[in-house]
Amino acid sequence: MFRKLLVISLLTIFSLTNCGGGGGGDDPLDFVGAATVDLRNQPHRIDPGNHTRVQVKVSDVHKNGIALKVRFPVGLLYVPDSAELTVDSVNKDMNPDVNASDNNYVYLVWYMDQSLFGPNGEKSGSLVFELRGVSEVDDGNIEAMVSVLDPHLPDGTGFDINNPNFSAQTDDYITVNSPS
Q: Are 48 and 179 in contact (CB under 8 A)?
């Protein structure tokens, strides 16, 4: 009898110490980072002068806001005034805060407050914009990543073309045919 009580007591103590105890959204394993992003473009193959439409879905936005960075080969250019953010069927023109290039890539950066995605960043949004083919791109990628906004830096000062700190979280492929 004593052994049974001892075994039951030990099992109860063991199960209670391994209990997660709930905690809702405070579970550190639920942490996503700056946000969740998914990028797609269509069509994947274009001729010079033609456009591809890029869609970046954004959700789980960090409370400090995000810097959404998109990178693509220099054979493509951003089509001015083509970017629009849609959250809950509400559209907002969203031209990039940064449009810069080096010898290989063009970088677009949007600085976004969490409030664009609801009071607690709980709503998903979709940023759609167009890129125009200007020169041959053979098996290129359009890539996106997000980082948490630094509350100590004013928006627009966190990106440096000489050190873009870019690590793609999502991408899709693009080809711009050679001019005939």
A: yes
**Cβ–Cβ under 8 Å, residues 166 and 144:** no
Spell 92-116 as b/e; 16+ CB within 10 A means b: eebebbbeebeeebbbbbbbbebeb
Cα of 19 vs its chain's centroid, Å: 34
Q: Quick check: 100 and 61 in contact, CB under 8 A? A: no
Contact (Cβ atoms closer than 8 angstroms) between residue 180 and residue 130: no
d(C-alpha 80, C-alpha 98), whole Å:
12
- Residue 2 CA, chain-centre distance (Å), reads 59
What distance in Å separates the CA atoms of residue 38 and residue 53, rounded to the nearest whole number?
14
115 DSSP assignment: G
Give the type of residue at 26: D
CB of 116 closer than 8 Å to CB of 175: no
Return per-residue pLDDT of the chain as tens, 180 residues: 555 544 444 444 444 334 333 333 445 455 568 999 999 999 999 999 999 999 999 999 999 899 999 999 999 999 999 999 999 999 999 999 999 999 999 999 999 999 999 888 889 999 999 999 999 999 999 999 999 987 777 655 578 899 999 999 999 999 999 987
> Domains along the chain?
33-153+167-175 (2.60.40.740)
